[in-house]
Amino acid sequence: MWKWLKRLLLAAVVALTVLIVNGVWFKPFSIRVFYERVFLEFALESPELLTSLHLLEGLGIRGHNAKLDDRSQQAADAQLAQLKQNLDMLHSYDTSSMTEDEKLSYDMLDWFLTEQVAGADKFRYHSYPVNQLFGVQGELPKFMVNNHQLNDQQDAEMYVQRLNEFKRVLGEVVTDMNIRAQKGVVPPRFVLEKVKEQVDGLVKGPVEEQLLYKHFVDSIGKIDSIPADKKTQLAASAKQAMEQSVNPGYQQLSGYLADNISRATTDDGVWKLPDGDAYYAYMLRQHTTTDLTPEQIHQLGLSEVARIQAQMKDILHAQGVQGDDVATMMKQLGDDNRFLYPDTKEAREQILKDYDSILKDITARLDPAFRLRPKAPMEVRRVPEFAEKTSPGAYYEAPAMDGSRPGVFYANLYDIKATPKFSMKTLAVHEGIPGHHFQIAIQQELQGVPTFRKLLPFTVYAEGWALYTERLMAELGLYKDDPYGDLGRLQDELFRAIRLVVDTGLHYKRWTREEAIAYMSNNSGIAASDVQAEIERYIVMPGQACAYKIGMLKLLELREKAKAELGDKFNLQDYHEVVLKNGSMPIAILERVVNRYIAEKKAQ
Question: 186 falls in which pLDDT band (50, 70, 90)?
């Protein structure tokens, strides 16, 4: 008996070894193994992603938390080669016998890899890796504060190790930017000026007053398991890392920016880049997953602006607001003390509390529309103060996949006038519930799908969903007795329609930054600080702002199609479950999923 058990065990070990060797070094026997290998390759190349996901810590694997990503040219070359190899291998699998669900996974990965390879081949150096909105200079400090968990001594030691990586990382970024500059890719002058101001602010003053050091010392001070003398040693090590790695790295980046500000131009659109028109078309396809032309998107924006403004005008007149210009009337409301918080620290704290109350009200209204909900909780926090000036009005950060960190809706409280009370409900819906938090947390919690499908991002789907839910909550009565809140919702939808106009205006019609700011200001009534930050965002993220309205309109179109074809069989909970339970996807695949749902429901 023992002899047979040993043989069986040996056979199992051999079989497992064959599977591992096959999965790692050769074409995997199973496409599901291939999918997991693609995800693991991608994740293991990014220790920062592994930290954010928090997938391995429960297995006792923590070494990645001591490292930062490799941003060298060699790493980028290897990543592109791997993308091409994976795409070729994906295409080598036979799809003829796949089920509908299996074909869904195949087509999602195929679309994503194909677009990534096309972009990397043609436009690898066209983006601006350091800009006023995102980039290593601001993302790394946010990552260290928000994602690097500090729970024990090992976490603290790894934090210091990461500080010692800053000089290497920032040096790699400067090398990359120099290559781009040689190829004619330099951001507009205002971008370099704003980034330099941000960079210099991060290393201003004594180390003891700098964000990364203060956060570390404050955090380890609360960890009871670390002895007092060890805390002193750790603080000294962190200070040394700041002096020898972090600050010199930022100073090198600041020097590069100073040297290039005078060389930069005031041309803002990507039309100015080599083959800029083709690059913009690629970015529009990347973000909208459609082949809509810039002109088609521009005209769609103009028609949507007119339609939404007409709706707003009716509500404004019903509330006794006089005038014919929507932007002027909305600016009057935005300056009305009834809708403003005082410009104080206490008022900013109250805003966060009020968001919590709004989210409770929203949650109480969801039953008619949602059967499927995320398990992960969500919190509302203030955008870190060092990043407020150049950050958008709000953004969402996904929860850790092991449940150790909640989803977070970050509210920008820099300009108190940019948070009028009538706009808060729709912002809480979009960034929080049932907007980004529902879509992203549910996607991460999907069962029985390849891991890549829990994380794959398609802007048109994610942002289209969040904007769609703004309309949905109006339909569910969130603004029934709140006409000003409904105006806030419509102003936000108007704002997304204006994006179609100004994004294509900047990058296709060659508008200046000032022309785009004037168009948004003259048509929206949004606070001046928000208008400027938004236009400057579109300049460094071409095409991204067009995804919101296009995704929303497609979700509404598909819902109405399902209603018309199913009649009494249509159920809103079913529709939302079908949209959410498959994760993020391009529009053509989303349409296929909904059509399949309609056909199956008809057949019941």
Answer: very high
